[in-house]
Structures are given as C-alpha cells and as structure tokens.
Design a protein that fits this description.
Largest sheet of chain A: 6 strands, mixed, barrel
Distance between the termini of chain A: 36 Å
Order of helices and strands of chain A: HHEEHEEEEHEEEHEEHEHHHHHH
Shape of chain A: elongated
Strand order of the largest sheet of chain A: 3-4-9-6-8-7
Largest sheet of chain B: 6 strands, mixed
Oligomer: heterodimer
Number of helices of chain B: 7
Radius of gyration of chain B: 18 Å
Number of domains of chain A: 2
Strand content of chain B: 25-35%
Helix content of chain B: 25-40%
Number of domains of chain B: 1
Number of helices of chain A: 12
Strand order of the largest sheet of chain B: 6-7-8-3-9-10
CATH class of chain B: Alpha Beta
Strand content of chain A: 15-25%
Number of strands of chain B: 10
Largest interface: A-B, 29 and 40 residues
Shape of chain B: globular
Distance between the termini of chain B: 28 Å
Radius of gyration of chain A: 30 Å
Chain lengths: 389, 243
C-alpha cells in the first residue's frame, strides 16, 4: 500500500517545497479560468438578452408571415388572422405579439440620465405571449393605459408597481410621450438586449413608433398553444395548409433565427474554445519545461528502482492538484469580479454554463501535461545520469 | 569478510556498432565480488568501466554473457522484474544528481524504504542512525541545496545502504569533490560496506581512492588489464597519481 502512495508523497512534497513555482502555474490556470468563465457568462448574457422573451414564451409554435425568413421585424400579420389560427383543430389558444421600440423617461429625481431604451411588446392579458406576472396584476382591458414591466426596468429606473412611467416614441412628426400606470412586474424578459415593457395590444398600437398617421395595426407574431405539445411537428406542417400566407416556427427555431443570434453565439463559442486551447498549450508548455528540468532527477529515481507508473502518477497528481487549485482560485476571482459589475453589463452566470466551463477547464491541465508525462515516462536513466555508454 | 559470492559475471560482452563497425565496449569479462568485499574499477576513459557498471546495475542489457546478483540471473528477468530488483537488491550512488532536491537528507534516505513499502518506525530510526553514523545528525532536515557536495554524497551513501541491498554500486562518487572530502566519502563508504557486509563496486578515475578498496580491477579497451589483490599492489597503484 505504501508503494502506491509513494508517487503521491513525491508529488505533494515537491509542491510543498516549491510553493511559489506551483502557485504561479495555478495562477495562470486561474487567469484562464477567469477568462473562460467570463466568456461563458458573456455568451449566456448576450444570448439571454436576445432570446429571453422568446425562449420563455408559454407557447408551442409561433406564426410568422410567409417568406419573412423568420425575421420578426419583417413579419406583419393582420390581427384577424388570430381567429383563423384559433379555429384549427388541435390549437388550444392563440395570442398576439407585436414588437416596437421606445424609451422611458427617468423619473424627475434623476434628470441627468438619458431615457432608458426599451422594447415595447403588445400582448393580450391571459393569452399566449403575455408574460407571467410575479408581482401586481395584469392589464384590466386591451385599451387600458397600463404596463407590465420586467424586473430590469424596475432596477434601472428605481420604480415600483403602482408608479407611473412616461414612454417616449417617435410618431413620425416627432417624439410623443405617453403616461402609463405600472400594474405588474414580470421576471427577466429581455428582447433584443433591451428590457421589455408589456402593453395591452390596443394601447401598444397607440403608443408604438409610427412612420405616419395611418399606419394600421399589424402583429408581428401569433403565439400558439397546442392541445397536445407532442403534435408540434404535425401542427407546424398543418397550420400553413389551412391558414394562408403564414409560416411556422418552434420556440428554439424562432430565437435561433433572431438577427445575429447564431453568429454571436458561434463567435463566443469560438473564443471560448480557443481560450481553452491556448490554456492547454500554455499549461503543456509549463509542465514540459518542468519535465525537461527534472530529467536527471527522474533518471535517478528510475535508476534506484522507481517504476514508470510511479513517475507518471506523481506527475499526474501534481498536474491535477495545480489545476484544481487554479480553477478554484479562478472561480472565486470570477465570482468576486462579477459581484462588482454594474447590472447593465450582459454577463449572466448560470449553473449549467459555469459547470460546463469548469469541467472543461479541469481537463486542460491533464491534457496539457500529457506530453510531459509521456516524456518523463520515456526518460532513460543511463542517459539522464550521464552514464550513457 | 564473508566469502559468499554476491555478484558475478560470466563472459560479459557489450557490443556497439559505430559507422558500420562493430566494437566491444566490454569484452568477455568474468568476475566475482564477495559479500563484504569492496572492489575498485579503474581505467582510462573509454575503457568500459561505466558500461560494465551499467550492466551490473541492470540498467543496460549485455549483448552476451550473464550477470548474477544474490543468486538471480539478470538476463532471465523481464524489464519490470529488473526495476523491482534494482529497487530491492541494489544500492546506488552516482557522480551527481544523487538526491531528490525537494526532500531533506532524512527524507531522501527514507525514500528508498518508501519505494520498497518498508518505511516504518524502525526504518525511520535506522535512517537517522545511519545518517548519524555518516556525521550528518545535524543535517537531517536540510535540503540538498543546503548541504555541501560531500554531505550530499554521504546522504547518497546512506540511501544506497538503508534497504540492505546485496550489492552497492558507486559511479565516480568523488568526481565533484575536493581531495579531502573525496577521501572522507570513500573511506566511510568502505567502512560501511564492510560493517554491513555488502558487496561494493566503485568506479573511479581517481586512483588515490582505491586505497580503501580490497581489490582493484583495472580495465583497458573493454578488457580486464590487471587485477590488484594485495595491499602492497593497491598502495603502489594508488600512489601512481590522481588518475
């Protein structure tokens, strides 16, 4: 048993007696960890900021105008189409979704701040497309001068349910303001990296930005709930055969079609991948230099009877120890830094993304050190000790 | 002195090819070292003494012939068995890089017991005693970098003997030491070989060091040129100079 623990003893003693050197390697891994976790959080933050409203929709399918290429801004649907879709057998409920942009004036107490840019989304209370309310209530009617805001609006403006907000939009002839009562609060519901203000659909039609005075009300999407979500594929194919001039998408398909979403995510994934690769190379380089420096020592160990597995286990144990310390340090530093960031920065740490990043980071040390372990295992004691004949 | 044979070779040959020409670095050497005997291996550079020592230590496989240590024929062993054999039955000191730099003197000696799974309270006490015997009682917890070259060699000697090997092999252990320290190291080495009743072989280019050996094998061009067995012969050879 003692023989099995001898490599671990050697690894531990070398680390303990060379704390600074190994701490520096751990520090390097910590910096790589920090970078990878931040890129992961940025990917999550930016991705979430784009897709959050769509991905949280309590709907199975979304109806777009035909040939809109699943671009929400390009999809224009008459409100009357909702009845046609609702009548399709297998559809349980439909709801309107209409999207526009605007700004909320900050309360008078903070006059210096620029208006907060928001997405204005018109929905009908109780129908698919409307957000779950976590505080307060939903709209009283489709024409009521009311709004449901998501939590970021509350955080940024410092307002509460029951307060009034002033929405500013471009009405073609210039900006106009509309005063609305905040009746409810929803959880995070960003759209296009902007916080969202939900309005009753007819109020939305009054408030929305317009290019001219006779701009008709058009929906961008119709959210569809099915009687049985398992019929999604069949219903996606069926609805366009019964309702003219529409195309369908599932929720994931819809947010992946958001402009720039896929490109943004693949850019961030590529950055994350290359950061890991650079990590593997840098750590590999460090351990290889260390292995080269230790050739005589390893040769002597082998000459006095240390088996190859002992040399390899000692090296692996060291690499794992240094990597785990580095990842823990990096994780702690990331949490510390993240807590100091202002809420406007789109960095979101989710358990799943962080765990995936940490697991991949735990592999960079052993992968990077694999060559040095192989090198150490191949050291010839005679050559290493200068006894080569 | 016990006259049982601890180490023997029979017609030991190591051949190499250089520029298409075959030559024997060691040419059919047969020798025997008895338990409790300390043998010096001398000769000019290229005479084959290091090659011979490498074969005796199971670090190099002979082209033909055999090495028998403590009754075991090295040629009949697998690589794995040879590694284990070195760990259990052979003690080493080298010219340099003898010690693990991040272990103290005591830990370096104990390492040999750890490698063999034999480190216990008695082994720890024996390690301390042996280092004390070598004049290193006040250096037990010093790292190699905190010790002189002579002290490091003495630690290596303790490590070579602590696990009671059948043979102890030393490759130029005094090469990096000044004359006074070199004498101290080899004299202590010889005393311990005799006290512990081990077979010892020392390769040295410094003929003055063979004063402490019981027998000297002089090599030239891979062959045994001459064997010095009497004190008078050995003293005469030692007096011929540093090498």
């Amino acid at each position: 048993m003692q023989i099995l623990f001898t490599p671990l003893y050697l690894a531990q003693m070398e680390v303990l007696r060379n704390k600074v050197r190994f701490f520096l390697i751990s520090l390097l891994i910590a910096l790589i960890t920090l970078l990878v976790l931040f890129i992961a959080a940025l990917a999550e933050g930016l991705g979430g900021g784009n897709r959050e409203y769509i991905s949280k929709l309590e709907a199975d399918l979304l109806v777009y105008k035909a040939d809109s290429d699943l671009l929400i801004a390009a999809s224009r649907l008459p409100r009357s189409l909702m009845n046609q879709v609702r009548r399709v057998a297998g559809v349980r409920a439909v709801g309107p979704i209409a999207v526009s942009n605007g700004a909320i004036d900050f309360p008078l107490e903070t006059p210096a701040a620029d208006p907060l840019r928001v997405a204005l989304i018109g929905v009908e209370a109780g129908l698919p497309g409307a957000p779950p309310i976590i505080s307060g209530s939903t709209f009283s009617t489709n024409r009521a001068p009311e709004a449901v805001v998501e939590r970021r609006v509350i955080q940024r403006l410092g307002i509460k349910v029951g307060d009034r907000i002033t929405i500013r939009t471009d009405q073609g002839s210039g900006d106009e303001t509309f005063e609305l009562l905040v009746v409810g609060l929803s959880d995070g519901e960003q759209y296009g990296l902007q916080p969202v203000v939900f309005l009753p659909i007819l109020t939305w039609d009054r408030v929305r930005s317009k290019t001219g005075p006779n701009s008709p009300l058009n929906l961008n999407l119709i959210a569809v709930q099915l009687d049985d979500p398992k019929d999604l594929v069949a219903m996606k194919a069926l609805i366009p055969t019964l309702v003219k001039d529409v195309e369908m998408a599932g929720i994931r398909e819809a947010y992946e079609a958001l402009p720039g979403y896929k490109e943004q995510q693949s850019t961030l994934d590529t950055q994350r991948f290359f950061t890991l690769i650079i990590g593997v190379l840098v750590i590999g380089g460090f351990f290889q230099i260390q292995a080269l420096q230790k050739v005589p020592q390893v040769g002597m160990l082998k000459a006095i009877g240390a088996a190859n597995w002992m040399v390899a286990v000692a090296a692996i144990a060291q690499i794992i120890l240094v990597t785990v310390i580095g990842v823990l340090l990096g994780g702690a530093a990331t949490l510390l830094l993240a807590s100091t960031l202002p809420p406007g920065i789109p960095i979101v740490f989710t358990g799943q993304a962080a765990v995936a990043a940490i697991v991949s980071l735990l592999f960079i040390g052993p992968i990077g050190g694999a060559i040095s372990i192989r090198y150490a295992a191949r050291i010839e004691p005679l050559k290493a000790l200068g006894m080569s004949t | 002195m016990n006259n049982g044979i601890a180490l023997s070779t029979e017609s030991l040959v190591k051949s190499y090819e250089l520029d298409g020409q075959k030559f024997n670095a060691v040419n059919s050497i047969s020798l025997a070292v008895a338990t409790g005997e300390f043998v010096g291996l001398v000769g000019p550079s290229g005479s084959g003494k290091t090659t011979l020592l490498a074969m005796l230590s199971a670090l190099l496989t002979p082209t033909t012939g055999q090495v028998i240590i403590d009754g075991s024929n090295l040629a009949e062993m697998t690589d794995k068995q040879r590694v284990e054999f070195r760990r259990k039955r052979v003690g080493f000191t080298f010219q340099a890089n003898n010690l693990i730099p991040y272990l103290t003197a005591l830990e370096n000696v104990e390492l040999m017991l750890r490698l063999n799974g034999e480190l216990n309270a008695a082994g720890r006490a024996r390690s301390r005693d042996l280092l004390g015997r070598l004049g290193l009682s006040d250096r037990l917890h010093n790292l190699p970098s905190q010790m002189s070259g002579g002290q490091q060699q003495r630690v290596a000697i303790a490590r070579a003997l602590i696990h009671n090997p059948a043979v102890v092999l030393a490759d130029e252990p005094t090469a990096s030491l000044d004359t006074e320290r070199a004498h101290q190291v080899v004299e202590t080495f010889a005393q311990l070989i005799h006290e512990h009743n081990r077979a010892g072989v020392i390769v040295t280019h410094d003929l003055r060091m063979i004063t402490y050996t019981d027998r000297v094998i002089q090599m030239r061009d891979g062959d045994v040129a001459r064997i010095y067995t009497t004190r008078a012969e050995i003293k005469e050879l030692a007096a011929s100079g540093p090498g």
